[in-house]
Amino acid sequence: IGVSALCGSLASVAAANAGSMDVTGGASATYTSLSDTVVGNPLGMTTALTFTGNGELDNGSTFKVTIVHGNKVAYSASAIALTTPSLGTFTYDEGGGTGIDRIDDMMPTAWEETTGTGLSTGLRSVSGVGGVTDLEWNVGMGLPDGMNVYGSFAPRPGGGNQNTNKAVGGDSGVVVGHGWDIVVTHNAIVDGLNVFAGFSQIEQVTGMGDRDQHVYGATYAIGGATIGYQYSKDDNPGVTGLYYENDAYGISY
Question: I need a labelling partner for 86 at 20 to 30 A (CA). Which of 5, 151, 174, 215 fits?
Fold first, then answer.
């Protein structure tokens, strides 16, 4: 009788919190050759799995849980996104890809990013607080079609910790306060045109000055071809000589 009662209770809980978990993945192999450089074994392989869970709450909000298993390593990124009926999407993210980090390299390429070939490009891309554990709000009300506005906040971006439940990062010795990012994208001004811009500011100790990063650019697709240009800057007065300005451009077909 006790077992029957327990099974009935579990079935009720499962029905009230129905959801699904999907798994996607892929693999690729590479052969890398560098001029005038001894590379040793030139063969390489990457594998990846992404676990995505979706469900709905009683108030109509939907949630999405994402766990990424990177290249032959432990989980490399994870996120929980809550999409509300009227206030947009709120995301807790570990592993980057939010805030200004979502537009760090938007140039057209055969890979995910222009640095995805495995060869050094000399590019120092911006990441803001979106490159570490942060909270992001994707504004979902009163915006024109095709426009997205993202705001990200990190209370201590300097540590970059990926903590477990109820855990804290502790004293990392990094003299960094809070930080925030703001990003705007629009893909409906002209057919095929996607424009984007973002700004980030991270507080640092008195006398060092805040770390400012910004980026803007556009891509344009016509037929099977896509061209793009973007400019980015990273100004960190807390580190001697850390000032970068980048011009990036690309074309893919």
Answer: 215
**CA–CA distance, 70 with 214 (Å, rounded to integer):** 28
Give the whole-angstrom CA distance, residue 99 versus residue 243.
20
Are 52 and 68 within 8 A, CB to CB?
no
In whole angstroms, what is the distance from residue 230 CA to residue 217 CA? 4
What order do you get walking across the sheet with 147-154 strand by strand?
19-31, 43-56, 62-69, 75-83, 89-94, 134-139, 147-154, 176-186, 193-204, 211-222, 225-235, 243-252
Task: Classify residue 83 as exposed, middle or buried by CB count within 10 Å of its CB (0-12, 13-18, 19+).
Answer: middle
pTM comes to 0.77
Which residues are registered as beta bridge partners of 77? Answer: 68
C-alpha angle 185/252/215, rounded to 5°? Answer: 30
- Measured CA to CA, the distance from residue 240 to residue 253 in angstroms comes to 41
State in Å, rounded, how far the first CA of the chain is from the last one: 66
Phi-psi region of 80 (alpha: psi -120 to 50; beta: other; left: phi over 0): beta
Q: Residue 119: pLDDT above 70?
A: no
CA nearest 37: which of 158, 104, 120? 120
pLDDT surpasses 70 at 4: no
14 pLDDT band (50/70/90 cuts)? very low
Task: State how far the Cα of 227 lies from the Cα of 215, in Å rounded to an integer.
Answer: 17
Q: Percentage of residues in the chain with pLDDT exceeding 70?
A: 78
Helix, strand, or coil (residue 115): coil
Q: Minimal CA–CA distance to 18: which of 55, 52, 51?
A: 55
